[in-house]
Design a protein that fits this description.
- The protein is 78% helix and 0% strand.
- It is mainly alpha-helical.
- The protein has one domain: Na+/H+ antiporter like fold.
- Helix 1 packs across helix 12, helix 2 packs parallel to helix 12 and helix 13 packs across helix 16.
- The longest helix is centred in the middle third of the chain and has 36 residues.
- The two termini are 42 Å apart.
Amino acid sequence: MKEAHTLELLLLLAVIIVASKTAGALSNRIGQPAVFGELLIGLILGPTVLNVLGWPVFHGAELGVFVKALGEIGVIFLMFLAGMETELDQMRRVGRAATSAALGGVVLPFGAGAALGMLFGFGLYESLFIGTILTATSVSISAQTLLELGQLRSKEGTAILGAAVIDDVVGIIILSFVVAFGGANATGDLGSVAFLVVRIIAYFIIAILAGRFLFERILGWVDRRLRASEVLLAFSVVLILLYSWSAEALGHVAAITGAYIAGILFAQTRFKHQLEDKIKVISYGFFVPIFFVSIGLQANARELGGTVLFTTLIILAAILTKIGGAMFGGILGHLTLKESIRVGTGMVSRGEVALIVANIGLGAGVIGRDIFTVMVLMTLVTTLVTPIMLRALFERAPEPEGERGQA
């Protein structure tokens, strides 16, 4: 990259990070999660409003490529942290109610998204990917709201947290298979599809076994033998990057799948808290703000003129099918109707998870920029309405002393 372009990139990154963090802080002040403000400022900076990459001071196309690449690294770290926060013991404890609510909250949105895609003339693979995006759940927004209401440790609050964990795992598996089968189906060879299934399963088995056997040993050896600044963090990042690379290059699944698996495996080591804090600093201080703003830089709401009906139906489907699917699953899991509706409502927000999936689809050429923009708007709306609906469904309860200040 030419020196002039390097200087432009430095200026652009400074603008992006300041805008992202400021918008996130303002969003928190009005009772919304930071991701809402960060995503909204991305839309404002993008072609929808200001089109910052088109300003004379920047060379838009080339700088956009670098910003997108940095944002994709942010996705890797974000999914790694999501894996580290996945409590396997909690998944075992949540029981039938959370499991059935999670499955219902995946199946119905997936079917509705795919059906709407087909109805509006999109291809089968693109429609399946639309359904995959709608399966996402971001529980952080619901958790913050329930904490404010003193309901985070209620029966419904616990079920929401547990169901969201299961939802994430199921969603990652669906995404992996949809991405993988897209390439296999292009050949039209049934044998290739069968081989792909074996390859995916083999990747999961090898990646999990290798991580469980090696991570603790590698990090322990590095910690004892190598003397250099932040060497443990450096080797941890190397393992994250290798798992992300191997997921796509060897397992033929999305790179974020490898990062997510690595996060789950790192969480089982004695280095979890030491590494989690440092990787959060790298991620949320630099890469993740760039990712959220880069989403807005790629979306253009001005192009939605012919897709207003589709956009409206997708947003309605995203809300109603998540509530309906999780509600039906919750009832099967022996929750009351009221409890099931609360659990389903707590799973409506798509947050960063849907953005990650949509970004993968756009990068792989599975969905066009028009569908990508629809999904960004869907994420904004579901992020906005979830706290409002939860506050309407829950009465504020006295907050236990031990929970104050936690999120």
